[in-house]
Amino acid sequence: MVQIPKTPAPPSPAPSRSVPTSADVARLAGVSRATVSYVLNNTSAVRISEPTRRRVHEAAKELGYVPHAAARSLRAGHSRMVLIPAPTFPVGPLYSRFLTDLQNALAALDYTVVQHGTGGPHGDEAARAWAELRPVAVLVPGSGLGPRGVAVLKRSGARVVVTLGPETIEGAHALLMDHDVVGHSAGAHLYDRGRRRIGVVVPQEPGLETFSAPRLDGVRQSVRGTDATVTELPLAYDEQAAARLAARWRSLGLDAVFTYNDEYAMLLMRALLDEGIRVPEETAVVGADDLMLGRLMRPRLSTVRLELPCGRELAELVDRAVRKPATEPETHKMLGATVLHRESS
Amino acid sequence: MVQIPKTPAPPSPAPSRSVPTSADVARLAGVSRATVSYVLNNTSAVRISEPTRRRVHEAAKELGYVPHAAARSLRAGHSRMVLIPAPTFPVGPLYSRFLTDLQNALAALDYTVVQHGTGGPHGDEAARAWAELRPVAVLVPGSGLGPRGVAVLKRSGARVVVTLGPETIEGAHALLMDHDVVGHSAGAHLYDRGRRRIGVVVPQEPGLETFSAPRLDGVRQSVRGTDATVTELPLAYDEQAAARLAARWRSLGLDAVFTYNDEYAMLLMRALLDEGIRVPEETAVVGADDLMLGRLMRPRLSTVRLELPCGRELAELVDRAVRKPATEPETHKMLGATVLHRESS
DNA sequence: TTGAAAGCGGTACCAG
DNA sequence: CTGGTACCGCTTTCAA
C-alpha cells in the first residue's frame, strides 16, 4: 500500500536537506510513529511483529535517523544527563584520571556525562546556566557553589547535587574532599623527622586557593599544640620567583618546607640547591601528588600521595541518590593521603 | 483580578515539588504564557508595558523559574550548543589552556560549550551519541572520526564539524594540527647541530599514537635525503623502562634523541645521566611542549614549543561557518613550532 | 498591548 | 499487534 503524505504539496523545496524525524522513518516504513518508537526503543510492554521491526530498522538506517534527545527528555520529564562544570584551570593527571574513570563508570550506568564550560566564575549564576539543561545530577568540584545555587538546581529538577570540595553546602550531598589531610600528612611527617620550623608554599596562581588553603591549614593543624612553627610562603610558578625565595632562604630560618605539590617542590628544590642549600640536611622538602618526575630529582622527592575516591564508587553513589532522592544529603570524607618518603626529607 | 485555574482540581497533590514552567510564571503574574516569553526574552518586535514586565520578572524570580533549554531548542529547531568530545587521556597544560580559551571565546559569542564524555573510543558510533544532542557545531580533537561520523553529524543538523587532527576528513572543516611540524623542527635542529644518528622516543601509552606518530614522521621528513638515520625507540612512562633503554644506549650508537615531549625527555635524560652518558656531548636530547620543569633539569632541556591557534580565532571560524554553512570545508594549517635551544642539545 | 493556538520530535496511553 | 492522539515546555504567528 502506497503511503500518501497528509499534506499534498509541502512548501519545503528540498526535504533531503532537513533532519529526518521519526515521522519520516514511519512514512518510509509504512507504519505509524508510535510503532517506530516501540521498535527503536525495544519497548517490552508491546510486541511488534518481526517483519515490521525489520522494515522500521531498515528505514531508520536508510535515512540515517538519530533520535532527538531534547524531544525525548521533554516528553519523559527527565533526562539522564550528569552535568559537571569544566575545570577552568590546568588540571593534573590525577584529577584527569579520576574524571575519566567517573565518566566511564557513569556511562556504564547509562548516564550521559557532560562537562559544561561555564562563562563566569563558578557561582550561583552559573548554576542557572546548568539548570537550563535540566540535568538529573550535578557534580561540582571545588568550592564556589553556594546554597542558593544548589537550590536553583534542585528547583529545576536536579535530583542530586554533589559537591566535591572542602566544605559542606546546605542541601547538597558532599563528598568532602578536604585537602587538609594532605597538609596534615606532610606536617606530621616533617614533625616526626624532627623538623620544627616548617615553611608552606602557597601558589600565587589564581584558582588554586581552593586546594592550597586547606593544604596549608592541614599543616597548621598537624603541629597545633607543639613547639613547631608554620610559615606561609607565597610563590609564583616561575624560576625567578623561586630564585628570589631561595636567596632569602637562610634568613627565614626554616628547616623544612611543604610545597603544595610536586611541581612547586621541584621548582623550589632546584632553586635551593642552586643556592647551595643542602636537601634534606639543611631543609627537608616534601611535595604532593606523586608525579613521576619527582622521582627523577636528586635527591628523590618525598611526596604525599592523594587517594581520590574511585570513579565507580562515586558513580554508584550518584545512581543510588538519583533513584531514591528522599535520602538526606550525605557527607563523606573521601580523601586519604599517604606520605611517600624518599630522599628529600 | 484573581486568576482562576482552568483545571478545577488538578490531581497533582504537591505542586510545590514540581519544576516551575513559564505557565506557572504566567499564572502568578496574571498574564499569558506568550507575554512571559516576550518579557523574559526581551523580544524587540513586541512592546510590553512596564508594569507588566515588572510583574513577570517578579513572578519569575519568586518561583525560581529557569527556562527549559530542551523545549526552547526543540521549538526553535536549532540550538547554540558546541559539542567537544572530552579527552580520554591526561592532557597537558597546553591543551588545557587552549580549551579554556576556546570555551571563553565561544561563550562570548553566546554559544554553550559542552564536553561530552564518550563511552567507547572516539569513533563513528560515538558520533551518534553526539548527534542526539543536536549540537550546532562539533569540534573533534585528534583523529578517530571518519567520514561516516561526519555524515551522521551533518545529517542531524550540525552546521559545522571541525576536526583538529593530523588529517583532513571528507565533509568536515579541518584545522590541520599536524604534529609533524614538531618532529620536523626537532629533527632539523639536531641535524643543524651536526647530529646524524637520531633516536625518536615513541610512548607506549595508548591514546598517544595520534600525536606520537606524526611527531616521529616529522623527524623522518626533516632528514629525508640526507645521510642521517632515524631510529624508533618505544618507551613506557616509568623509571625501569627508561633505565633499561639507557643500559643499552651505547649499543644503539645514537648521538641524539627526540623524546616526544618534555616528560619523556626528563625521564630518559635522567636515566642516561645515571648511566654515565654525557648530555649533550655524547647524546643530545630534545623534548617538546616547553614545560616549566624542563628548565630545572641540568643540563637545561632543549624543547620544541608548539604554537596552538588562539581560542578566539577558532571560535570566530566556527561562528562564521555556523552562520554561512554554504562555505566549502576549509583546511587550515594551524600549528607552528619553535625550537627553544637550551643546554641539552 | 495582550491572548489563543499551532506546532517542534517523541512517548505512552487507549482503542481498534 | 498497530494506529490515533494527547501531551512535555516553549516560541511565534495571528487576532482581538
UniProtKB/TrEMBL annotation, chains A, B:
Q: Which domain of life is it from?
A: Bacteria
Please give one Pfam family short name: Peripla_BP_3
Location of the HTH lacI-type domain: 20-76
PROSITE patterns per record: HTH_LACI_2 (PS50932)
Signal peptide range equals: none
A GO term, aspect molecular function: DNA-binding transcription factor activity
Q: What is this protein called?
A: LacI family transcriptional regulator
Q: What does UniProt list as this organism's lineage?
A: Bacteria, Bacillati, Actinomycetota, Actinomycetes, Kitasatosporales
